[in-house]
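A.,

Following up on our hallway conversation. Structure tokens first:
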């Protein structure tokens, strides 16, 4: 089995979700300097995962106060 087959996808929903995350994080400037779409998508997903984890931890420890 060719490993590149595991990495490529034809799933439209997955691709559109990746594009949406890249668009979101490009606005922050944190993807500047990345050359390929693959690099941008990977970094954007990493940033998205980190942001989710920070929010999860903050809410579970009651750090977030909006009251």
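Then the amino acids I'd put at each of the 67 positions:
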């Amino acid at each position: 089995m060719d490993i590149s087959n595991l990495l490529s996808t034809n799933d439209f929903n997955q691709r559109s979700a990746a594009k949406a995350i890249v668009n979101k994080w490009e606005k922050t400037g944190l993807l500047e300097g990345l050359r390929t779409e693959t690099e941008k998508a990977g970094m954007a997903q990493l940033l998205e995962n980190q942001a989710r984890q920070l929010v999860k931890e903050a809410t579970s420890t009651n750090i977030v106060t909006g009251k």
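Residues 37-60 form the longest helix (24 residues). Curious whether your intuition agrees with the design.

B.
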